[in-house]
Each structure stands twice: as C-alpha cells, then as structure tokens.
C-alpha cells in the first residue's frame, strides 16, 4: 500500500493530478467509510426489496380484494413518484412527526437518516419487484399449482416451494436490471446527508480542490460495484437455469 501511495504522490508532484485518496490517510479513511456505507445501503435495500416484492406478489394473487388493493396502491404510488421525493417525504415529512428519544443526554430522532434511506429505497425498489415477481408467477402454468395442491400443499407452501422458485427463473433478467438500478439509486441518500461514497467524495474534493480526480475515482468505484453485482446476478441466473432449457 505504501508503494501505491508513493506512486500517486509522485504523480501529483510531477503532473498535478491529485488522487489524494490513495496517499492521504485521512482522505482514504473518509472514502473507505463512504464505500462501506454504500455497501450497507445496497445489500440491505436489495434484500428488503426482494422480500417485500415476493410478499407483495403473493398478496396480489390473493382472492381477497382487501389484500390486493393496498398492494396495487403501493405499487402505483412508489413506481410513479421520483425516488428523491420519496426520500424527502420519509425523512422530512414522516421523520418530523415521530417522537424523539433520549440518547446520551440529547434528544435525537427515533429513526436516523440512514434508516430512513434504507426504508425509502427498499420500498421504491420493492414496488418494481412486486410487478416483476407477479409477471414471473403468472408465467408458471396454473396446472403446476393445481398439482401441488393435489399433493396436499397449502396455497402458501405451494407458493414458497414450487411457484416462487419457478417464477424467479422467469423474472431474473428483469430483476437483475432493477437491482442494478437500486445500487445506483443509493447515491440519492446523499440528499439527506447519509455519508455514502458520493457524500465522502464530495467532502474530499471540496477540501482538496481535486474535483476531476475524485470524479474519476467515483465513476470507477460505481463501475466496479455494478460490475460485481452484474457478475453475481449472472452467476445466480446460470445456477437457477433448468437443465434442457438453456440457450
């Protein structure tokens, strides 16, 4: 690591390209902290959006209108409003309505900006996942569900063990795109001062006056993160492929 830092410091001295994040320990700590926050936001929101999307798709197929209507309304609202507006609504709208709590002799909000960002981004992605899972479920032949019920499966167990695994195989390409978009959308948490990668990089270039260099680092960071996620999703897609049906 010292050799890398020395090389970037010599690069700055000879060319003026100031990639301070690679040779300044303070800048590196801020950048790495932002990267960890981005990973936390991405992993948490991806998992929550998948769970909420799968449950919502199940409720959409319910015979009860009382269960279908709230899910449909949720999907319509969150799919047709900007994610930044949703973050502001949760943080500045609902957040101010919740009671404050005592912590270390100070009154602090019940939910932090990080928690509100996770809630907002998870619901935003889940609204799309509901429709993605629904399309996959509808692609599973009705006779498959009837066969499962004939074998003694309840509707819930048939959904979990038979219908959902088959539906995931169908909807994985669309699901991959939505999860990649979710990773990129985590940058919006910057708007409510969540210290993710964009927030940290903005602090660094404001102090070091190296906007171009830090923008290169930022673009490379998200390019790598998205590339890793795409690779993992493609591995998952290949693992879920049914033998005899591969292209």
From TrEMBL:
ABC transmembrane type-1 domain boundaries: 35-230
Organism phylogeny: Bacteria, Pseudomonadati, Pseudomonadota, Alphaproteobacteria, Hyphomicrobiales
Annotated PROSITE patterns: ABC_TM1
Residue ranges of the TM segments: 37-59, 114-137, 158-175, 211-232
Chief location bin: membrane
SUPFAM superfamilies: MetI-like
Protein name, as recorded: Polar amino acid transport system permease protein
Keywords: Amino-acid transport, Cell membrane, Membrane, Transmembrane, Transmembrane helix, Transport
Family indicated by similarity: Belongs to the binding-protein-dependent transport system permease family. HisMQ subfamily.
A Pfam family recorded for this sequence: BPD_transp_1
Topology versus the membrane: Multi-pass membrane protein
Entry superkingdom: Bacteria
InterPro entries, per the entry: AA_ABC_transptr_permease_3TM, ArtM/GltK/GlnP/TcyL/YhdX-like, MetI-like, MetI-like_sf
CDD domains for the chain: TM_PBP2
Record's subcellular location: Cell inner membrane; Cell membrane
Keyword Transport: yes
């Amino acid at each position: 690591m010292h050799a890398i830092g020395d090389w970037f410091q010599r690069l700055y001295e000879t060319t003026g390209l100031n990639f301070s994040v690679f040779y300044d320990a303070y800048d590196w700590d801020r950048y790495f902290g932002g990267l960890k926050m981005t990973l936390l936001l991405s992993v948490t929101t991806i998992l929550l959006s998948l769970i909420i999307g799968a449950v919502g798709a199940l409720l959409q197929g319910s015979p009860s209108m009382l269960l279908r209507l709230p899910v449909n309304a949720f999907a319509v609202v969150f799919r047709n409003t900007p994610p930044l507006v949703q973050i502001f609504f949760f943080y500045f709208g609902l957040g101010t309505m919740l009671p404050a709590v005592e912590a270390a002799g100070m009154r602090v909000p019940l939910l932090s900006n990080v928690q509100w960002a996770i809630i907002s981004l998870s619901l935003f992605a889940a609204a799309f996942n509901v429709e993605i899972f629904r399309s996959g479920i509808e692609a599973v032949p009705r006779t498959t569900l009837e066969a499962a019920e004939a074998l003694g499966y309840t509707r819930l167990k048939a959904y979990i063990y038979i219908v959902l695994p088959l539906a995931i195989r169908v909807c994985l390409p669309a699901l991959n795109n939505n999860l990649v978009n979710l990773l990129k959308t985590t940058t919006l948490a910057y708007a409510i001062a969540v210290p993710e990668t964009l927030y940290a990089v903005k602090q660094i270039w404001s102090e070091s006056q190296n906007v171009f260099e830090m923008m290169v680092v930022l673009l490379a960071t998200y390019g790598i993160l998205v590339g890793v996620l795409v690779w993992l999703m493609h591995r998952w897609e290949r693992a879920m492929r049914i033998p005899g049906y591969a292209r």
